[in-house]
Amino acid sequence: MTTPILQYNTKTEIEQTALTVQQTFKSGYTRPLKFRRHQLEQLWRLIDDNTDALCDALYMDLRKHKYEATLGELITAKEEINDALVHLEEWARDEQTTPSFINRVGTTCIKRKEPKGAVLVIAPWNYPVYLALTPLVGAIAAGCTAVLKPSEVTPHSAKLLAELVPRYLDNRAFMVVNGGVPETTQLLDHKWDHIFYTGNGTVAKIIMKAAAKNLTSLTLELGGKSPVIIDENANMTVAAKRVVFGKTFNAGQTCVAPDYILLTAKAEEKFISALKQAFLEMYGPDPQASKDYGRIVNTRHFKRLCNLLMENKSGDVVIGGQADENDLFIAPTVIANVERDDKLMKEEIFGPLLPLIRVTDIDDAIEYINSKDEPLVLYIFSTNKKLVNKVLDSTRSGGVLVNDTLMHVSEGTLPFGGTGPSGMGSYHGRSSFDAFTHVRSTMIKGLSPVMESAMALRYAPYTTRNMSIAKMLLETTPQFKRGFLQKYIKWIVVVLLFGVHYARNRRL
Ligand code: NAD
């Protein structure tokens, strides 16, 4: 019997881990900004010092080229850390608000940014380093403690993370648990202050059920079928290159990979010829021989993809179609003229198969998109502003990228996340900080008796006179009805109340 690459944590270890991070959070140890800053710097060093080891693990797990590992996992994670380091004080700062009229005098209103607490981060296999460490950036920046559960499907990366995290991060606050379903289930039995899950929608429902037991807040980063609209008048050469990039990066095993193409019969011919050229330029005539092209993660997913292709009844394979189980290789494959309700259109493809669906016009494309679940991203290739706006105004999706693929993921100024079945909540940049932060509304009032005469209006015994004054103070005249008197009536009433208060005090 061969020894497994990845050692799973025992029940006792998991109990101890959950308890430790929960106690550490309660002690307030992770709250100071100095601590958070140091941990973020350490996380950056973890990636930087171990670039080769991380790239090797990713190669062994997914045959991911060093170029893809560096660009798609390591630099992107380091940039998230850099962004958090630059903005940490700004994001964590209390925000003072201008109180409404009734609280205007003697009151301070503050939005305090407080860490949610001890959090659980559950990561998937397709970007096993980036999708494990990036949520952790948000958790550290927000002042939380965290348990990270990497995916067991990519054991080399999971094993390496379990070795590196305790060497670089404070292991009273940040710990890794490795395991499969039973171990994750045990983790989910604990009461967490937030759960951040990235993966498929079926497991997301299990996570949500577990979170519901304790009313724990959730971020769900899921997937779905992300469509691409190709306008007849788009530059087909550029569009094809960008679609090929999005579909072949990590062999199409990307949550935001273009899932299928919507185009008219007129556009199809030009687009297929541009696709052929783009595949040839990037991977040569035999993509299996290309060192740049990745592999399917395991036999289960290889078989799932082959079955999808075999059980799909309609369409013609116009590019690719080759597969080799021993090498977990599936060629980039384009299937033209696929029928809308065929097998390939039933579930997220999550691999290098690309169906082309014919539409009669843009309205037909929009109708088709709207007949399916809201996707994680919607891609549009067009320079026609009217057409782009029409699509934006009449569809829904987690995000939109016009005239490119994947690049929105690396944009830290934009929140990244899905909507409906493609996810709940978002992260990246400031949104990562916000995902792990509770905004605690804090109102501070003075105790001076000066305001009492105005405030005393709310106390019993209730009188008709007080009711009229309170109404005048509390009820706002809508903007469209406001004249000069309505604008200043509240201030006039306050001055009168002060006057009465002053006169009474002088008499005493
Ligand atoms: P996976 O199989 O690695 O599962 C994800 C995590 O869930 C793992 O840590 C795993 O241990 C855990 N898990 C699996 N079954 C479980 C169960 N029954 N109970 C509790 N935990 C369980 O990854 P996956 O789900 O195959 O990931 C692929 C999916 O994730 C795709 O749908 C993809 O679109 C989506 N995804 C989304 C994003 C995003 O950012 N929105 C990123 C990557 C992947």
From TrEMBL:
Q: Name one GO cellular component term.
A: cytoplasm
* Stored InterPro entries: Ald_DH/histidinol_DH (IPR016161), Ald_DH_C (IPR016163), Ald_DH_CS_GLU (IPR029510), Ald_DH_N (IPR016162), Aldehyde_DH_dom (IPR015590), Aldehyde_DH_NAD(P) (IPR012394)
Q: Which residues form the active site?
A: 221, 255
Task: State any GO BP term from the record.
Answer: aldehyde metabolic process
Q: Which GO terms describe its molecular function?
A: aldehyde dehydrogenase (NAD+) activity
The Aldehyde dehydrogenase domain is annotated at 9-441
The alphabetical list of record keywords is:
NAD, Oxidoreductase
Q: Which family does it belong to?
A: Belongs to the aldehyde dehydrogenase family.
Designated name of the protein: Aldehyde dehydrogenase
**Species of the source:** Linnemannia elongata AG-77
